[in-house]
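Translate sequence into structure tokens.
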Amino acid sequence: MFNFLIAIAWFAVASYYDLKTREIHPALPYSLMAIGAIYSYLYGSILTTAEVVAATFVFSYILYRLKVWAGGDVKLFTALAFILPVASYPFYPFVVLAASLFLTFPIMILYVAYNIMIRKKAVHELGTSIKTGLRKTMLSIIALSIVYLVVHQQFNTLDFFYILLTSIIVAFGIESFRVARKHFLVETVKKKDVKEGMILARDVMVNGKRISTLAAGLTKQQVSQIKRSKIKQIAVRKSIPFVPVLTFGLLILYILETLLY
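Result follows.
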């Protein structure tokens, strides 16, 4: 359980930075990766850790390209794979992610449902997103099943149920977040108030050049370009700190692991 406690401690500090500055100190994920690599070498399996790290990074990078996670989220979630690749279940970072979404599900659903119901356009898009989410879920199930079969050379009903449940929760959570982010996590900011790190809700054209952002937000150069332009205001996304959600899920799982195993 030493690795579990280390992960919780690092994520707790990362949550503090995420809530206070909306950034994750770069030393946190890198130091956790180093500790995790040493721990896996001494007490675990290098091959298993490498497989989980690869799967976690690919998944995180996809979320980064979809503008769901920032670079710090990608690094920290990948670092979790180094320190905690497996526990009572394989590919444990995905268990943490699914548990975090599941535990915050009631609050998220009520918040999303209320805001979507008062916006007719959002109601229609949520239906479309659910269909998209189901397709993504099937792809996730196939991908995770193939990885599991390659690693373990066997398959059983309980493992399939675990993969199915995890895929559904993650896919639906991501789609709900995407709809919420588009329709009611957006605010208008005057040009003079634009700051580094803000995430554009829509791309803007400045002197014939398109400015867009990933989840990391606007750079200093982009802020300067916007403030020198004729644009009066821009639409930016209200960011949601996700690291505290992961930390909460990690803590609850540690308590359950301690009581049940």
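Note: DSSP finds ten helices and five strands in the chain.
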